[in-house]
Amino acid sequence: MNTPQRPTIAPAQGRLGVLTVGLGAVASTLIAGVELARRGMGEPIGSLTQMGTIRLGRRTDQNVPLIRDFVPLATLDDIVFGAWDPFPDDAYVAAQRAGVLESTKHLEPIAESLRSIRPMAAAFDSRYVKRLEGPNVKSLDKRAMLEGIREDINVFMENNQLDRVVMLWCGSTEIYLERGPAHQDRDAFEAAIDANDPSIAPSMLYAYAALLEGAGFCNGAPNLTADIPVLERLAVESRLPISGKDFKTGQTLVKTVLAPMFKARMLGIAGWYSTNILGNRDGEVLDDPESFKTKEESKLGVLEHILEPERYPSLYGDIYHKVRINYYPPRGDNKEGWDNIDLFGWLGYPMQLKVDFLCRDSILAAPLALDLVLFTDLAHRAGLGGIQEWLSFYYKSPQVAAGLYPEHDLFIQQTKLKNTLRWMMGEDQITHLGIEYYLDEG
Q1: Is the overall model pTM greater than 0.90, yes or no?
Q2: What CATH number was assigned to the domain covering residues 251-358?
Q3: What residues of the chain score a pLDDT lower than 50?
Q4: Which class in CATH covers the domain with range 16-247+362-424?
Q5: Cα-flanking dihedrals φ and ψ of residue 281, to 5°?
Q6: Tens digit of pLDDT for each residue in 38-59?
């Protein structure tokens, strides 16, 4: 297959607007972290765009620049934040309420900046997120929601003198929906909006508004959102990047590392039991069975795609895979993911592996969100429209083009991401074949 022609990347000039749908724990942690990092008061740990490196050429060349020095990314100083949320709390109050960051150390020094970010009225319908109710909402009419979001984008750009915008879904998980007739083409989609069709979720209206107003869109939740034919097609036609879905932070991140290890060594798996306890707003929303089903679908697909049971039936053809999420308010944002893996090796002898990951959900999600914003802006300036599969590295349930299966192996995803950056900049892609040593010696 021929490698596509290297794109021409427009320079990262001017101001970049970042509009988050939701101003809860993830978004407020992202905003506060960026404010602290650009003042030199904190390190953006976990962010590839800020701290990651990329090897160029042979290993002997020792050419390993920072990614942000290699590709023309917007800087943290270029970013201007805005948000929608069904609750009227500004970013300072939202961060205090989320309880992720220490107030004295990390919130008070930037309190003025955080207080200046006040959420716009959200396109929110409690029929899609049943455990939340908020006063800061738009009309329930879907056409009015769409036009309101579009107006918000334009006002935000004008008021802040922005050159570009990226929209990032940091909102709660919506109820489970499947693709249907209303999602197939523009006419059907528009008619469904006018009819207030229940198959059109608020998240779809945000993604549609973003594309209509020339903004890239990233979906950090497992909702059926931009992964419908009408929006995938519009993104290609408009040369706007979309990606999703569901930030890969805790338990699923571990799975995408361990499952490839078992498969690489041809070790069998009899069962994989995963349970979570989480006490933040996301945990409360997922306590509703319909929202949990959306999340469950996102989590369950990982092992099947990595392990390929149809190719290795004796090793993975009869796995019992169970996922549980339990709302536990005392834990707050400090999520605990516990896994019990029953595996077997030589001659079928059984073994076990147990993992207890006591992680901080928003601390892991914030750097992912930052990278997605900056890479999506890069893709936009490079004219790369449609699904950005190279950003699968950041998602539990990566969005892919029709007819393709998603790649879940974290290290394959990382290779794809870095090789895409190399291709964008006209550098040779790296295969780790290492044959040049033998050729040189010969």
Answers
A1: yes
A2: 3.30.360.10
A3: 441-442
A4: alpha beta
A5: -60, -35
A6: 999 999 999 999 999 999 999 8
